[in-house]
Amino acid sequence: MDDGEDEGITMERKKYKILDVGCGTGALFPYYLKAADNAGIDLSITGLDLSPKMISLAKKWGETLLTSLGEGGGSKYNFNFVEGDFVRTVLGEEYETKNEGEGEENGSGDKKRTDNLIGCGDGVEDELTEEHRGAYDAVVINACFGNFYDQVATTTAACQSLKLNGIFAISHPLGADFVRKLNIEDSSMVPHHLPTALDLRRLTRTQPLSAHSVLDEEINLLDATRQVQSYPFYYASTSRVPHRPLRDVVRFRAPVARGYGRGGKKLGFPTANLESSPVIRAALEEVPTGVYFGWAVLEDFSKDVQRTGRNTWHRAVVNVGLSPTFEGKENGEKIVEAHLILNSEKDIEGDFYDETMRLALSGFLRPEKKFPSFPDLINAINGDVANAREALGTQLFVVLKTDGFLADLCLGSLVDSSAVWVGASGGDENASYEFQNLEEAIADTPMGPLAV
Length: 452
Ligand code: RBF
Ligand code: MG
What we know:
The chain is elongated. The chain has 452 residues and is of the alpha+beta class. The chain has helices at 29-39, 52-76, 86-91, 95-98, 151-160, 175-185, 197-204, 264-267, 278-284, 374-391, 395-399, 404-410, 438-444; strands spanning 5-6, 9-10, 15-21, 42-49, 77-83, 136-142, 162-172, 209-222, 228-240, 244-257, 272-274, 290-298, 314-321, 335-341, 356-366, 426-427, 432-437. The protein is 27% helix and 29% strand. It is built from 13 helices and 17 strands. Riboflavin is lined by residues 259-260, 262-264, 267, 269, 271, 291, 317, 319, 323-326, 337, 339, 368-371, 377, 380-381, 384.
């Protein structure tokens, strides 16, 4: 066994980090240790609880467990404790006041918090909260999710404290019916029931979280006398992903501008920029700078031979912004730059300057950044392309391909250019745009009512 110590060199083994939210007296601690032992991994457990009394009991229990494991236990496993409110600890003290408003019954959230196109506010990231941001492999909320008043805030905090691919699990050893009963008996103590599969989907919709499963059933276990016993059990799991769906899909229709000629090609990522105009400028007032993704279609209404790559879907990864990395040569204004992810250069015949592009954004990847160097920018864009490609292969974004805005062209149901599309939010037959609530956009697609 490699215990990490070799010829006097001590290597810090990578520890799997669990955040146990509302840890209470530490009822789950022995199970974590057992599971880690079975899996042969080292573990760092952080117990968080609002109650100082619970924290002090959990500390003692943690020490007892480590002592019982002897020498080995102390090096493989360790405990940390945080006394405080989960949401404030991760999202910052001001999060709640900034997002004031009644959280709705089903946790779908309040108006203010979802003001932004990108969805939920993620709170402030400062020296007080950064310790917990992106820090954990797993966040567990056991036997107390129903007690959190604001489920959107709680889910946001869980999401923000996870590493990429980390797991957020909600569990209850007595099942959802038990929590439903508590909720009916005293809704001031237990303001919510545990999320159903549909609730979980709503709760995670505009988070960079992918919902996996909700288990709420009787499971058979052996009791102390080795008899099979049926126990109710609730377990829901989600995982942190790089992308989040937008609160609203954004549809742009505009000519492709000749670029700034500043090196999209040189960077290896040629982009089709939407031609700037008062219409596009107005649209962009509501679109924060950042990296988005969605589908793009180049219009071609020519009667005879349509050129390759027109009237068909292309994956698009899109920077909305100023390109701050190009210091001194930043864009003069916020622009929309779409890099089309092609399988081959031959997918689109010729260049497409001045052609009209329909661009539907439905997901967000990250804020726009000023990178210290061009290789750093190129690395980031490579990651964006991979993340967008992956996301666009998932059900939600595949369904959005069938949005009439795109599909009317691709499926040939529009025969001539007299049926010009003009977006509902502003513009004319040259350039226009519209925002539509994501859920409505999904419902409007032919597959939507059945899917996602
Ligand atoms: N420029 C930046 O300065 N910072 C960014 O974070 C950034 N992200 C981008 C992400 C994608 C997917 C694309 C296509 C471009 C991005 N750009 C960014 C813009 C890039 O600098 C620009 O495309 C080139 O300067 C060519 O105009
Ligand atoms: Mg460009």
